[in-house]
Transcription antitermination factor NusB
Amino acid sequence: MSRNISLRKLSCNGRTAALRALLLVDDGLSAQQALASVLDAPVAHGASGNSREKSHTANAGRCQGLSAQDRALCTELVYGCLRTELRLNFLLGRVLPRPQGLPRPMQILLALAVYGLLFQDKVPSHAVVYEAVEQARALFGQGLARVANGALRSLQRMGEEPAQPSFYAGQSGVKKYRHGAGGTDSFLGKCIFYSIPLWIGELWRSAYGDEAALRLMQRSFERPWAALRINARHTDGAALHAVLAAPQAEGRASAIAGLSGAATESGATEQDSLQYHTDIADRVDKNENNEGQGNGHKPVAIGQWGLAFAPGTMPREALGLDLRQWLARGALSWQSAGSQQALLALGLDRWHEPVWDACAGHGGKSTALMEWGVPVSLCTDRSFARLRGLPTQCTTLGLPVPPHCLADAIRPPVGQWPGHILVDAPCSGLGVMGRRPDIRRREPQHLAELEVLQQNMLRVLADILQPGRELAYITCTLNPAENERAVDQLLENNSDLTIERQWQTGHSHPWLEGMFGAVLRKKG
Ligand SMILES: C[S@@+](CC[C@H](N)C(=O)[O-])C[C@H]1O[C@@H](n2cnc3c(N)ncnc32)[C@H](O)[C@@H]1O
């Protein structure tokens, strides 16, 4: 049975929209792209130009005209299910003999229901079960409706047990998650509890030790903080910052939905839109719980212009305008706290010579630097889909559009560069899984490819760097092979380079995502 045909039997609501979006994620779309497709919010930037993805987007069942609440519920469910996927699947394996033998839409609707039972405290369990059973009946008939009912009732009978990490260590089903890899049952149980693939857990454990690995797993499982960057050059920037930096008063943070379009149209990056989606989900969750508003949450300052908000506390409006309107007016950008902090911690805001951003993407880091007065003089990227967003982004923010062109950093468009070079490298993204939960689905094999790409970029760009100038290397991953070792290797092969500064998010940092950066200087 074609799943698109069968899905037409479902009415559109938050849960069925989430089911459609998760099927698109199965097909290779990011969570953000899938949500945009289903909720009919075009992704202005960041959507891959990949034709396979485009065809899925075109064929996706859309849920137009959903209420704000349903759109927000859909967003929460998609991000929540992806963030907790391994745990949800494990639990389904406890209450069903062979869940992987079920049709994929059935597996997903059950996972959505398990997520509801485990994590959506204020949605009555009977409503979650009823809806899943009705969906199963509409799609597959009475037989699978009974299966859904039986499985979810069994899960309910487990009570609070699945909320305890210890529950996952001793279970017989735990071993099949090992896939031949090592790891004790206890560690494997924690990976399942925090929904981290064993290969990532093991990578962290061998690189950073048991305690740090656990902390990183826990952080990746938690809802991410949301962040924004106020445009230092905007006439209302200072006033806006003052208002947003104050403790959030009662009722200022509230659930809003349907913002994906606003975020992308206004030039937000893919990462930032993802963050925004997550933020929406956070707000909805908090609203369901009737908390997270008006309890005096104070955002954390990131440098002079950035602000990070605990889940559920980003306000909806400031100075009489919705934040979407400030975004459209170029007074702020969505940018993760880690991205802003990396630039500041590495001292790139103090660069005075012309900067070439060799992996500029949509220009998130370049525009931040320009707002802070750094002369960005060239932006290149290998992806047209990403780079094409840069001019609009600059114009919206009132910044000059720097010269920009499509270019592979390994085959650079210039033979020499008189200033500094920024390499915000493509990486495995293991530091940002809270915000980009679908990264969990990637296979470990892609790491080796990335490492070669990163090393080649660094080698080629280091050759171009002039004496006395700096090359900054940034990743959003926690993997020594992509971080410290990549830098060490470059230093080993280039005796004319010295390391000036190196920075990495602390493993126990309570909310900042995992970022790494190093600044290398050419002697002379
Ligand atoms: C982490 S993202 C950069 C994000 C961007 N700096 C920002 O702040 O919005 C990495 C970028 O590297 C680009 N990229 C991947 N391989 C590349 C290559 N060989 N040459 C140049 N850019 C590449 C990707 O298209 C992506 O935009």
User: Anything to note?
Assistant: The mean pLDDT is 86. The longest helix spans residues 270-288. The pocket of S-adenosylmethionine is lined by residues 269, 359-365, 381-383, 386, 408-410, 424, 426 (CB under 6 Å).
